[in-house]
Amino acid sequence: MTIPIMPSPSEQSAHTDIIGKPSQTFPLHCVQGASLQPDRLWTALRKWGELLGPENVDGPDTVVERYNPGALPKKYVTCPVAAVRPANRDQVVGVVKIARASGIPLHAISRGQNWGYGGPLPPRDGMAIVDLSRMNRIIEVNTELAYAVIEPGVTQRQLFDYLKSHQIPLVPDATGAGPEASLVGNILQRGFGHTPYGNRVLHAGNYEVVLPDGRVIETGFGRYENARAKHVFPYGRGAWVDGLFTQSGLGIVTRMTVWLLPAPESLIGFALKVPDEHQIAQIVERLRPLCLDGTVRSTVHIANDLRVISAKTSYPYWLTGGRTPLPDPVRQHLRRKFGVGAWNLMGGLYGSRGMTRQAAKEIRRAFRGLAPVFCFGKRLLSAGRWLAEMTERLGVRTPLTEAVRSADSVYRLLEGEPSDEHLRGVFWRHRAIPPDVHPKAAGALWCSPVLPMRGEDVLALLRTVTPIYERYRLEPLITFSAVTSRALVGVFSICYDPEDSVQVNQAEACYEELSSAICRAGYYPYRGMIPHCSDPCFWDVSPEVLNTLFPESAFCDST
């Protein structure tokens, strides 16, 4: 059902210039969802257009087309009523003040590439999106103290290319979210990467934040105009408030300091694989002491066979006669074809040559009797690439080819270079994938529980989720990541073909049951789908904090 939204006669000409037609329609539930008054919406759109330029404002008629991920099950699709794209902090302040006066709730996104968790969509209907992608300045790079000051629109590729082109020997942490993902946005969701700075939120600070009443603050020592340590000591004095602005609607972060890793003398990647899926417990038990004593400082990722295979190919409908889920003989065939194990571990060693050499010895000793550890650096990868190219020219495709490609993609991430390769997995169940397809069109939902780094907890969690995947005829694409030295984050991918209504329904039901089951088992997700945020413990408290500080707040969760 739709309802016509008519501006007052005195405003019709202004609306025509800003958002097209003087009369628009959009779903009634969008209005009801935020108790919007249509005339207030039109007034806000006009004022935003005057502030930002009409090309940087989407009204109800265009916002859904631009920001709807498209492939999400309908249950998770919310309906924004507008989107605005400010270019600087002062424009953000203006946007917030207009929204507050109009009673329109805001949802801020850095670039909206929140894959697997709802993309750019707001948590509920009737909200306006504040898209910060135009705020993409690298304000400062300090080579001596190894940090960068950036805006929310700065991408992983942009910072990496800047450092490389200026020959600055600093390494930015990179995630598998792709080159165009926002650094600030991922940090605000407490995402993680691959380097020793992979737990990103702990290597950032000095947030510049626009509050719900339009005031601007800096966190930490940034509150003092002449503070010389604001970029290098995030805590400041008194309460450490940075965390309040992560996964919350307490403010819009418009600038941030991120720490960069000095390029090490030696960088060695290491990997191992095991043939038995139950050996995951032994991997975790042997890995934990290496993380606790500092032998391994990078984020370590442990992926099952299906997760690795999904980055190399899509679901082989041609081998299964169109049937799902994947039959075990086909799964074993794909393992052999791509040279992957039941579980596959990848990490990095950073430091002097002596340090990485000794760490590699310790890792090999730790996994002795379980699996051989493959260590690789630039020279070995270069030789491997040459050999793989020679065999391919001869028309011979060997497991070496896939091993070199996998090691090369991992090594680039360890060096801070973002890649699209690991995003391919979100298209696992698609029957047809156009070459220029965008990840927002992918059929994938991610569930991300946190668990202690113990083999017994990993097995308990797998016993919880495996029957659920089987019940809905879906494959468990799973990665466990050692984000801290004591905890793992599991990323459980639920993949489906968005053109297949049966698969879409299966994925939705699987996600709902999986989300409930892991919480009942005591393994709560560190992050959730934005339109699905309904945790009664936190969300009963967060609005109280927000409403106490800012009774007329217009904010909600940011990405």
UniProtKB/TrEMBL annotation:
Pfam families: FAD_binding_4. PROSITE patterns: FAD_PCMH. The keyword Flavoprotein applies. Keywords: FAD, Flavoprotein. GO terms for molecular function: D-lactate dehydrogenase (cytochrome) activity; D-lactate dehydrogenase (NAD+) activity; FAD binding. InterPro entries: Cytok_DH_C_sf, FAD-bd_PCMH, FAD-bd_PCMH-like_sf, FAD-bd_PCMH_sub1, FAD-bd_PCMH_sub2, FAD-linked_Oxase-like_C, Oxid_FAD_bind_N. Residues 76-263 form the FAD-binding PCMH-type domain. SUPFAM superfamilies: FAD-binding/transporter-associated domain-like (SSF56176), FAD-linked oxidases, C-terminal domain (SSF55103). GO terms for biological process: lactate catabolic process. This is FAD/FMN-containing dehydrogenase. It comes from Thermogutta terrifontis.
